[in-house]
Amino acid sequence: MAAPCRRMASRSVLQFLSCFSRTAAGNSGFRQLSSTGVCRASVQVQSVTEKGRSPWTLMAAVCLQRLPVVSADYSPIERRFLEMQQQLEFEKSVLGDHELRLLQDADRMSRKQSGNYDSDEEDELGDQDIVLAQDLEDSWEQKMNSFQLAPRISADVDKDLTSLERCLTDKLLLLAKQQVGGEKLWLLPQAQWQEGETLRQTAERALASLPAGFKATFLGNAPCGVYKYKLPKAVRTESSVGAKVFFFKAILSDSGPPAAPNAPFLWVKKNELQHYLKPAYKMKVDRFILGL
After folding, report:
1. Mean pLDDT score of the chain
2. Shortest CA distance to 135 belongs to which of 174, 109, 102?
């Protein structure tokens, strides 16, 4: 009786193991990798890597601005407000030292003319020369008349778009002639991004590549705008469709030596950009240029 029981138990265990092996063989998770599968997987990874390469070239441009050198002229409402402020300050002000001295001199002269003057006042001054406040005003007036103010507007210089001395009351923007495909365009100074550098470093390199040797202070490490354009069809390929330009703002700190008359860059005002930039490019630039 014990022998049949052992045979039945061993038979059930063998049946269970055989069913488990068939199930494991049928499951794809336990299938052994072949050399053909490994080659197919490597080809797929390579194709995914090639697809991950963007056909857009990364560029960085610098928006270099020269701030106004002199203050702008007052508008009519600003002029009226200034006059009102000056009148209020005059009414609420107290006499200064020079004004008090003028009153003292006028009082001394009136007492001398009326004969009510004490000569002991002159004895206190000794041998010192008496300089009246009016004499000081006359000398100051002569110095003021001999002083010549620098011109605020120079018509000849304003016509020279390569000069930093033009339009001293306005903010100017630097444009450089750049090669794009087979044509040259007026753009913000730009350069292609290189591996291992940040976009700001690319913008700094674009500014340093200009022959004028401008020095600037960059306003942060983040771009203030971006512009995407496609290359002309004649030079466009599947691996190079166009470029994405990231703009960085900077303020001119040192102008360097004077520019040559035929220099490949211009200093223009905001309302002059339409004569040099394409409409789509100008629309992107206008977003971060304040016409103050």
Report:
1. 78
2. 102
